[in-house]
């Protein structure tokens, strides 16, 4: 009887082993660095640039399907730590505490910088003053009333823009009065376009690449030039001022991959930081991590192509 029991156990073990190998092989067949399905959770403030990257990536690699899930920064981090998201796009690196959480599960996040973005201040078109001192906004965040600001408008209480401004003002909570929040950057732009005296705080990518339904709305707002805390000059969130590190509210963008294997997340990260991906960043108005190369053809004589 014992002999038959051992034989039965051996058969079950071999069967389970074969099934596991088949499942692993099946998973490998479904996803590689250039094919398969993947969901990327992205900080909502930089959604447009990631949408552009995905469109070109899928147009190049037809077997790849990437679904974009925009969320606030706090939600992105929670999903990443709770393993609800494997690949995310953020406006900051992981903190030592967050990296420590991944170390417990023996996962080493792959962090790839791919662009420099900026936080922009916007006002209604009726406001003739297109300049603002960063100290004025910091003071307002610290609860000091200022006649020049009727109110600050953010996209989401848990967004990266709120976190950035709270860190800058060295406050734990935003003021209870004079600060408004919605859900998306588009809602902030629409609100500022319709209300005088409000200062909107948005990702500049929403202004450099407005969606078709936002083109007319963006025309109704001013993008303010900002004087830094240690500057005497005002600079705009333009590609040139960001490149020369003069605009005081610039921030880097990262794609963070926690898949733990060579999957579509690795392929997309390589694409977005490669030549084509960096050209997309350059065209978007943001600053690429590396300037794409340009090939020049030098001719000894002029060739008339019309002949």
Structural features:
307 residues, alpha/beta, D-Maltodextrin-Binding Protein, domain 2, 2 domains, 12 helices, globular, signal
Outline the structure in words.
The strands form two sheets. Strands 1, 2, 3, 4, 6, 7, 8, 9, 12 and 13 form a ten-stranded mixed sheet that branches. A three-stranded mixed sheet has the order 5-10-11. It has two domains: 123 residues, D-Maltodextrin-Binding Protein, domain 2 (3-Layer(aba) Sandwich), CATH 3.40.190; 135 residues, 3-Layer(aba) Sandwich (D-Maltodextrin-Binding Protein, domain 2), CATH 3.40.190.10. Helix content is 39%, strand content 22%. β6, α6 and β7 form a beta-alpha-beta unit. It is globular, with a radius of gyration of 24 Å. The N terminus is likely disordered. The chain is of the alpha/beta class and 307 residues long.
Number of strands: 13
Order of helices and strands: HEHEHEHEEHEHEHEHHEEEHEHHE
| Integer average pLDDT | 87
Task: Return the structural class.
Answer: alpha/beta
CATH topological fold name of the largest domain: D-Maltodextrin-Binding Protein, domain 2
The CATH architecture of the largest domain is 3-Layer(aba) Sandwich
Helix segment count? 12
Indicate the proportion of strand residues.
Answer: 15-25%
Q: Give the number of domains.
A: 2
Which residue ranges are poorly predicted, with pLDDT under 50 across at least 5 consecutive positions?
Answer: 1-28
Protein name: Substrate-binding domain-containing protein
Signal peptide: 1-20
InterPro entries: PBP_domain, Phosphate_ABC_transporter
Domain PBP: 36-272
